[in-house]
Amino acid sequence: MASMSGLHRYNLRYIDVSNDMDSKEFTLPKVYLMPGELYFGDTPVKVSTLLGSCVAVTLWSECFHSGGMCHIVLPNSDLKSNEMHPRYVTGAISHFLEYLRKYRLKPKQLRVGVFGGGHALERYPEESNISIGMRNVQQVNALLQAEGFNVSHRDVGGNVYRKLTLNLADGTVWQSKHTHQDENVEKQVWIS
Prior knowledge:
This protein is α+β, with helices and mostly antiparallel strands. It has helices spanning 89-103, 126-129, 133-146, and strands at residues 13-15, 30-32, 38-41, 46-51, 55-61, 66-72, 111-116, 151-156, 161-167, 173-178, 184-190. The strands form two sheets. The protein has a six-stranded mixed sheet with strand order 1-2-4-9-10-11, with no helix packed on it. A five-stranded mixed sheet has the order 3-6-5-7-8, covered by helices on one side. A hairpin with a 4-residue loop joins strand 5 and strand 6 (66-72). It is globular.
């Protein structure tokens, strides 16, 4: 299997963290995704992002210890030439499908999570933001279903932002939800 070369670079920042584990286990490198970025690989790393109205899709293959995450900003582009960029739903899912072909994986072999799509702009009525966050969620769900993915974890919507981390050493997904006053509302962990 490919190592860090499985990384799809769209202005991706790769950061080694000296001690980022809560327990006394080994240290994993950390990849932080900015909006519009995507990571897929089989190297044990922690992939993290921060979501408001954007949506993250996480993929994990327990059999092959590979997977990834994307940070989708918008449901689609006004320009056809931009649609394949991973900041858009179609582009991100297409890039994931390329990696699945490269790793000889099928969508049904993966544990899939969909997160985000929250109401990120507190000062505006929720109806004004539904055109971004919930449209992102609806587009992601429709395309994942059309491509044969089974979503096993879904946490979307709400007046919160989310901090999300996928551990590619074991497929664990950590999520914490926060309000706009930075109150920690809820922490959740999904284990493979």
